[in-house]
Design brief:
It is built from 16 helices and 9 strands. The protein is of the alpha/beta class and 350 residues long. The strands form 2 sheets. A 7-stranded parallel sheet has the order 1-4-5-6-7-8-9.
Length: 350
C-alpha cells in the first residue's frame, strides 16, 4: 500500500459510488478532471524527459501518476492517467502528442479506405492499460478508479482535422457532405472506445467516463442525428457491467438532455451552465461538477463560497459528485486544490 492510502471501507460503499447510484453518501464526493497533471511538482519530476504517450504506455508510471493526487488531496476517486488518443496509437494510427499543440495525426482521415485502414481494438492492443488498472486497484483499496475514453465526435475530429481545431470545419464538412464516410468513422471509433472501456472495467475500474471535449461545437439537432447514436453505442457496451457511466462535454449546455439520453448515469456539467439549469435538463440523473477552474486562483474564501453554492444547488439532483467544470489549470496551486477538497468533504449534506 502506498503512503497516504488506506482501506476503511470497500469501494462499493464509498461516497463516490454511492453518489453515482443516487444513494446518500457520507459526504459529497469530490475528484477533479486532470487532477494528475502539470500542477503537481511530483508529476513534473516523473514526466521529465518522458513523452506523453510513452508515459501512458508504461504501467508503472501510469500507476504512480494516477496515485499522486490521491495521496496529496485524498480525493474520493482516482482517474486513470492516460490520453483519449491512446487507443488510436495502440491500433497503429500514426499520431503523436505535440507539446503546446496536442494530438497531431500524420495522415488525416478523408475516405472510406482511410477508415478501413484503422484496425479494430482488441484487448491485446492495450494489455499495458489492463496491467496499470490491476496495479492501481491493488494500491487504491477503498478509493474507486475511474476509467475513461474519448467520445466518438472528439476523437473523430482529431482524425479528420489532423489535430486540434477551433471551428471543426473539416469534421463538419464530412459529417454533412460525406455521411457514409462519417458514419463508418464514427462506428469504428465507437467500437474502439467500447472495447477500451470494457478492458478497463474487466481489469477492475469501478466507473467510466466518456469525454466529449468538442461536442459543444454542435447544434442539438446535429448532435442527435450524427453523434448521439455513436456515443450511445459506447455507453451501451458497458451498460451491463455494473459500473456507473459518466458523460462529460465542454460547452454543452444546449446538449445536456441529449447527452443524458445517450445512456449516462451521471452527466458532467461544465462551468458555463448553472447546476440548477443542468439538473432540469438531465432529469432523474446524477450530476457532476461544476466549479470554474479559474476560481482556484481567487482568494480561498471566494472559492469556497462559490463551491458552497454549487453544493447547495446539487442537493436538488438525484445525486451530486463535486468536480470542476473542466480540467485543473496547469498553473493551479496544489495547496489551493487541497483546501477545496477538504472544504467540499467537510460541507454538511443538509
Amino acid at each position: 500500500m502506498s503512503p497516504g492510502l488506506s482501506t476503511p471501507v470497500s469501494p462499493v460503499d464509498g461516497p463516490f459510488l454511492r453518489a453515482t447510484r443516487g444513494e446518500r453518501p457520507q459526504h459529497t464526493p469530490v475528484w477533479f478532471m486532470r487532477q494528475a497533471g502539470r500542477s503537481l511538482p511530483e508529476y513534473l519530476r516523473v514526466r521529465r524527459g518522458v513523452g506523453m504517450l510513452e508515459a501512458c504506455m508504461n504501467p508503472e508510471l501510469v500507476t504512480e501518476i494516477t496515485l499522486q493526487p490521491v495521496r496529496r488531496y485524498a480525493v474520493d476517486a482516482a482517474i486513470l492517467f492516460s490520453d483519449i488518443v491512446l487507443p488510436l496509437k495502440a491500433v497503429g494510427v500514426d499520431l503523436d502528442i505535440v507539446a503546446g499543440v496536442g494530438p497531431v495525426v500524420a495522415h488525416p482521415v478523408r475516405t472510406l479506405a482511410d477508415v478501413a485502414a484503422i484496425d479494430d481494438l482488441t484487448p491485446g492492443h492495450v494489455d499495458f492499460v489492463a496491467a496499470a488498472v490491476r496495479s492501481l486497484v491493488a494500491e487504491l483499496g477503498a478509493v474507486p478508479l475511474i476509467g475513461f475514453a474519448g467520445a466518438p465526435f472528439t476523437v473523430a475530429s482529431y482524425l479528420v482535422e489532423g489535430g486540434p481545431s477551433k471551428d471543426h470545419a473539416l469534421t463538419k464538412a464530412m459529417m454533412f457532405g460525406a455521411p457514409e464516410v462519417w458514419s463508418a468513422l464514427m462506428r469504428k471509433i465507437a467500437g474502439i472506445a467500447a472495447t477500451y472501456l470494457q478492458v478497463q472495467v474487466a481489469a477492475g475500474a469501478s466507473a467510466v467516463q466518456l469525454f466529449d471535449s468538442w461536442a459543444g461545437a454542435l447544434t442539438p439537432r446535429d448532435y442527435r442525428d450524427h453523434v448521439q447514436p455513436h456515443s450511445a453505442a459506447v455507453l451501451g457496451a458497458v451498460a451491463n457491467l455494473g459500473v456507473p457511466r459518466i458523460h462529460f462535454g465542454v460547452g454543452t449546455s444546449n446538449l445536456l438532455g441529449p447527452m443524458a439520453d445517450a445512456g449516462a448515469d451521471v452527466v458532467g456539467v461544465d462551468w458555463r451552465t448553472p447546476l440548477t439549469t443542468a439538473i432540469d435538463a438531465v432529469g432523474d440523473r446524477v450530476v457532476q461538477g461544476n466549479l470554474d477552474p479559474a476560481l482556484l486562483f481567487a482568494p480561498t474564501e471566494v472559492m469556497n463560497a462559490r463551491a458552497a453554492a454549487i453544493l447547495v444547488e446539487g442537493r436538488a439532483a438525484r445525486g451530486h459528485v463535486f468536480n470542476l467544470g473542466h480540467g485543473v489549470i496547469p498553473t493551479t496551486d496544489p495547496d489551493q486544490l487541497k483546501r477545496l477538497t477538504e472544504f467540499v468533504q467537510a460541507h454538511p449534506l443538509d
